[in-house]
């Protein structure tokens, strides 16, 4: 009997990770007409209409004027309707966009077309995109580094003129200065990469020396001797294509805020890299309870006497239960950053991520 129960629990454990066919379901309180406002995000609007927001592009089947269903603009009018087959669709009514006039530093008027709304709340994500990166230890060790300045200081701030080890940049280049923060490891203890922090920005000055001279322009922290210099990573696009994870399965291995208890809008690190996921990948968050020892006085496997548990009870594994949802927004070689968008309870490091 106990063996049969164990098999049933194993089946239940696998259920959350099986890829079922996604079906569009319109929420009961979805608006029939909605006008996109500045400050909206695609994620918010998708959640307004759908229980599964990654299916948003499916609502745009007959909108032939839209090249990219992820590019929605303030002022667009979204109209919910149903076709002859009873399938939901959203029609977009787009007025010709009006340019926004900006005044340049020289006083000239510059006309700029409005930008599409971001996929996710960019003010939450931007600090991590701009200030945190992951690289291999070999790549980090190979970077040039700060040696010091003519005044013999050990810490430096904007305006300071520094000498670096190596001559790898050209005059006028604007490298970033970074510092090693932590080594990221998977659940087996294998190294996945070094997480680095954006310390400051610099500008390379003309020099005939065998080493580069740089001037610090801005800083997030005081620069120290030994801090590394690297070319600034390219700016990431704000509009991400939403796509559901399928067979991918991984774990939350770290929190960028160094929190142990996580919830909505916390940023986490996954042990899934560029060969596993892409920016915009939606994943569900699942957590398993402790194994249970089924005996006359039931207990959890992590409490009590292990020998007694083994002799007098059967160990039962609990199924993984969905506790939240996240969106991957930045991908590196072996890891990725993701934003928790929904959480039904407290989420902890070690939680499973899989098909939503």
How do the helices and strands line up, and which of them pair or pack?
Elements: H1 2-14, E1 33-35, H2 42-49, E2 77-82, E3 88-93, E4 100-103, E5 109-112, H3 122-131, E6 132-135, H4 137-141, E7 145-149, E8 155-156, E9 161-165, E10 176-185, E11 191-205, E12 213-219, E13 223-224, E14 228-230, E15 243-244, E16 250-255, E17 261-262, E18 267-270, E19 281-288, E20 292-294, E21 299-300, H5 306-312, E22 314-316, E23 320-331, E24 336-343, E25 347-348, E26 352-354
Parallel strand pairs: 15-19
Antiparallel strand pairs: 1-2, 2-3, 4-5, 6-11, 7-9, 8-13, 9-12, 10-11, 10-14, 11-12, 16-18, 16-26, 17-25, 18-24, 19-23, 19-26, 20-21, 20-22, 23-24
Q: How would you characterize the overall build of this protein?
A:
With 356 residues, this protein is mainly β. It has three domains: 24-93, Membrane-bound Lytic Murein Transglycosylase D, Chain A (Roll); 125-230, no CATH class; 243-354, no CATH class. Helices cover 12% and strands 37% of the residues. It is built from five helices and 26 strands. The chain has helices at 2-14, 42-49, 122-131, 137-141, 306-312, and strands at 33-35, 77-82, 88-93, 100-103, 109-112, 132-135, 145-149, 155-156, 161-165, 176-185, 191-205, 213-219, 223-224, 228-230, 243-244, 250-255, 261-262, 267-270, 281-288, 292-294, 299-300, 314-316, 320-331, 336-343, 347-348, 352-354. Strands 6, 7, 9, 10, 11, 12 and 14 form a seven-stranded antiparallel sheet that branches. A six-stranded antiparallel barrel has the order 16-18-24-23-19-26. 27% of the residues are buried.
């Amino acid at each position: 009997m106990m063996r049969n129960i164990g098999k049933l629990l194993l089946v239940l454990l696998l259920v959350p990770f099986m890829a079922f066919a996604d079906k569009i379901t319109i929420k009961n309180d979805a608006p029939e007409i909605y006008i996109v406002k500045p400050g909206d995000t695609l994620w918010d609007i998708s959640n307004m209409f759908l229980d599964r927001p990654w299916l948003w592009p499916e609502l745009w089947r007959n909108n032939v004027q839209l090249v990219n269903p992820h590019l929605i603009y303030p002022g667009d009018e979204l109209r919910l309707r149903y076709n002859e087959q009873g399938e939901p669709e959203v029609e977009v009514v787009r007025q010709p966009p009006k340019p926004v006039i900006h005044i340049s530093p020289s006083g000239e008027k510059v006309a700029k077309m409005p930008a599409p709304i971001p996929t996710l709340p960019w003010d939450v994500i931007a600090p991590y995109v701009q200030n945190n990166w992951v690289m291999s230890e070999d790549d980090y060790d190979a970077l040039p580094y700060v040696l010091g300045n003519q005044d013999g200081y050990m810490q430096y701030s904007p305006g300071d003129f520094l000498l670096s080890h190596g001559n790898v940049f050209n005059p006028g280049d604007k490298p970033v200065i970074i510092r090693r923060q932590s080594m990221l490891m998977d659940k087996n203890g294998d190294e996945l990469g070094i997480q680095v922090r954006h310390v400051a920005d610099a500008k390379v000055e003309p020099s005939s020396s065998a080493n580069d001279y740089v001037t610090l322009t801005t800083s997030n922290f005081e620069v120290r001797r030994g801090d590394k210099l690297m070319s600034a990573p390219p700016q990431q696009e704000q509009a991400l294509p939403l796509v559901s994870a399928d067979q991918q399965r991984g774990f939350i291995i770290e929190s960028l805020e160094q929190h142990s208890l996580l919830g909505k809008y916390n940023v986490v690190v996954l042990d899934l890299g560029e060969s596993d996921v892409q920016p915009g990948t939606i994943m569900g968050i699942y957590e398993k309870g402790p194994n249970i020892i089924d005996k006359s006085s039931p207990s959890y496997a992590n409490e009590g006497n292990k020998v007694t548990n083994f002799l007098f009870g059967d160990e039962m594994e609990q199924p993984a239960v969905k506790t939240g949802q996240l969106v991957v927004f930045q991908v590196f070689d072996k890891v990725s950053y993701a934003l928790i968008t929904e959480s039904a309870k407290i989420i902890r490091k070690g939680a499973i991520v899989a098909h939503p």
